[in-house]
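step=encode ok
step=design start
structure_in=
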C-alpha cells in the first residue's frame, strides 16, 4: 500500500504563486508515475501534470502549460507542483496521484483510472 498526503494549498491573489507538496509513504518503491489532478466546484476532476518517477518526460494540461511545473525529490518521496501566475479559474481541490504501471503518453497520464493511489486533496483558492 501507498499513502499520499498533500500540503501547501491556501488562498492567494491572482498572479501569485503557490507550491504544493505530496509526500508518499509505504511501498513507495512500487510507484512508477506521479501526477496532480484538480477538481473545481461543480466540475469533474481533471488532469493537471504528471511524470515518471524514475525520470522521463513531463506532461501538462494545456491550461497550465508555462505556469505550473511538476518535479520530484526521490530522497524525500515527495512530488511538488509549483504554480505561478495563478488565475481565479485555477481555484480547485488539488489531488496527488500515483500509479504502479508506467505511462508513456499524455492520454495515459490523464486517465484517472490509471492511478491506484490518491491523496485526500488540498484546497487552492485564487481571488481576483
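sequence_out=
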Amino acid at each position: 500500500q501507498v499513502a499520499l498526503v498533500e500540503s501547501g494549498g491556501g488562498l492567494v491573489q491572482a498572479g501569485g504563486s503557490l507550491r504544493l507538496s505530496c509526500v508518499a509513504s509505504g511501498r513507495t518503491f512500487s510507484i512508477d508515475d506521479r501526477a496532480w489532478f484538480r477538481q473545481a466546484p461543480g466540475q469533474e476532476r481533471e488532469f493537471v501534470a504528471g511524470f515518471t518517477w524514475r525520470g522521463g518526460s513531463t506532461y501538462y494540461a494545456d491550461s497550465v502549460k508555462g505556469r505550473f511545473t511538476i518535479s520530484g525529490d526521490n530522497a524525500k518521496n515527495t512530488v511538488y507542483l509549483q504554480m505561478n501566475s495563478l488565475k481565479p479559474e485555477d481555484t480547485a481541490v488539488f489531488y496527488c496521484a500515483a500509479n504502479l504501471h508506467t505511462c508513456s503518453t499524455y492520454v495515459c497520464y490523464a486517465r484517472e483510472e490509471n492511478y491506484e493511489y490518491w491523496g485526500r486533496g488540498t484546497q487552492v483558492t485564487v481571488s481576483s
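step=design ok
step=annotate ok -> The longest helix spans residues 106-110.
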